[in-house]
Amino acid sequence: MNDVITVGMADFKTAVAPILLLTAGLGSCIGICVHDPLLKVGGMAHIMLPTANGSLGGNPAKYADTALELLVRDIMSMGASKSRLRAKMAGGAQMFSFPGKPPVLKIGDRNAEAVEQELKRHGIPLLVADVGGSFGRTIHFNVGTGDLHIRTINHGEKVV
Amino acid sequence: MKITQFQLDALREIGNIGSAHAATALSTLLQRRIDMSVPEVWAVRFEELSAIVGQLDDPQAVIYVKVEGDAPGKAVFFFPVESAEIVVQLLFGTNEPMDLYMGEMAQSALKEVGNILVSSFIMALTQFSGIPLQPSVPALAVDMIGASLDAIFLEEGVLDDTVLFIDTQLTGIPKIEGQFIFLPEEGSLKKLLGAMGV
């Protein structure tokens, strides 16, 4: 049994293998997982919104841009090399739809786009994006192997 | 906006009146006794939500209604799938297992329950404050509670550092438990409090 560290909403954690990182009940939020496969260290952030733009103060781990900044900084401070970093993400669902009313802002989609963009900016390849749909996800990330385990209630379970 | 103790009491009173109407409506619908907790008013960081709803990936039925009108907000009624199944069985007068995830009948019954609960809450609020409010059609998700709530709270793509909402527990026999929350938009809060002279 591996030890598991839970990442809360608007929170991020780093870990060394064989520890697993867990975040539960992702809806429109996204779990961003980054690791260095050689050093077997990595981290996870549970972001809620695309960008910290315009919001003063507050928790930087809430936003895709600022959270990834912190996550990468902390993983690097553990000795990881930025060029070896790999990323996976899951979440970004659209949980509700109102008949006849197209959602003005699909916040899940916007979150996924923001994460993708920020990863590109950092030059970190995105290996897996399990995003969208209309269901919640609970994810476990193995920082050593990079395996991302995705559990849903009614839409199956997989390791990517 | 800073909330004073006096305003918190006023909000609790709003919750009391609205939730009492909602509990009565549910009780009439199910022909069962439904008890209601004293509503609590929370002003918390969204990140602390798990302290209020428990396990974030616990499967629950969530009925979400937008409150439109002069003091808009969001009303959400959620209950564990076991309770939701009992409610649907009571409505259909059956002991057969119900498919809440895919079954159209069960899902529209749940939406109707939410509709009735929320409408009675809103009617009470309108009578009390004199502010006209209308409920939208209900939307339903039977899924991880954290996933459903984050989607509701983050829908507009903004989130204040603290969210304020009124929270009431409903319990009934046999084994029905649910939670009702009302989230006024920031401007709405001022109007509702203003209408009550606080």
From TrEMBL, chain A:
Residue intervals passing through the bilayer: 15-34
Catalytic activity, EC: 3.5.1.44
Keywords of the record: Chemotaxis, Hydrolase, Membrane, Transmembrane, Transmembrane helix
Domain of life: Bacteria
Coiled coil start-end: none
GO BP term, pick one: chemotaxis
Claim: Transmembrane is one of the keywords in the record: yes
Catalysed conversion reaction: L-glutaminyl-[protein] + H2O = L-glutamyl-[protein] + NH4(+)
One annotated GO molecular function: protein-glutamine glutaminase activity
SUPFAM superfamilies: CNF1/YfiH-like putative cysteine hydrolases
Family: Belongs to the CheD family.
Job of this protein: Probably deamidates glutamine residues to glutamate on methyl-accepting chemotaxis receptors (MCPs), playing an important role in chemotaxis.
Protein name: Probable chemoreceptor glutamine deamidase CheD
Biological source species: Desulfosporosinus hippei DSM 8344
From TrEMBL, chain B:
Name of the featured protein: Chemotaxis protein CheC
Ranges for domain CheC-like protein: 6-41, 105-140
Lineage, top ranks: Bacteria, Bacillati, Bacillota, Clostridia, Eubacteriales
SUPFAM superfamilies: CheC-like
Gene3D superfamilies reported for this sequence: CheC-like
Record keywords, A-Z: Chemotaxis, Hydrolase
CDD domains: CheC_ClassI (cd17909)
Organism from which the protein derives: Desulfosporosinus hippei DSM 8344
GO MF annotation terms: hydrolase activity
